[in-house]
Amino acid sequence: xxxxxxxxxxxxxxxxxxxxxxxxxxxxxxxxxxxxxxxxxxxxxxxxxxxxxxxxxxxxxxxxxxxxxxxxxxxxxxxxxxxxxxxxxxxxxxxxxxxxxxxxxxxxxxxxxxxxxxxxxxxxxxxxxxxxxxxxxxxxxxxxxxxxxxxxxxxxxxxxxxxxxxxxxxxxxxxxxxxxxxxxxxxxxxxxxxxxxxxxxxxxxxxxxxxxxx
Length: 214
Known about the structure:
single chain, 5-stranded antiparallel sheet, Immunoglobulin-like, secreted
């Protein structure tokens, strides 16, 4: 049996970090070195930078998971937050492990837009929809990420005849409906899009591809 100070140290959570996509923000951690400690449970607290008191996250108090959803607790997206986690096993509690400072507005990963191919003749008409945040308007609809950032859409066309990896940027801007003209009939075209945040100089991943034959 491990001595208590050793146990205390060996169950301490490692690599505590926030991960965030479109303001869906979760705290993640790795178990301590004593991986054989099967009955380990975890306790999560959070606070705004500069506050002296930590708040318990009730849903993540004595849990066995290694992840805790703090989306609602970090909804003031300009504020910097900290999270911390401690472990308990066999009646022994570890010290707290602290995350780095996390500012949702600056650090959340923005997802790609939803792309719908509406029509094709000699042209393709696309509808783009910004990713949505988890936060809701009074009427209950989710607030789009365009409310929080000056977002641009980047639209790329892949002409499958040529080369799978060759993507031509055919549009960059804020329009939600885009027409791509002068395309060749009988050719298969695929469209992918990204969101781009000029102020942070950050792009999303590519959207899933939408293909059409004119």
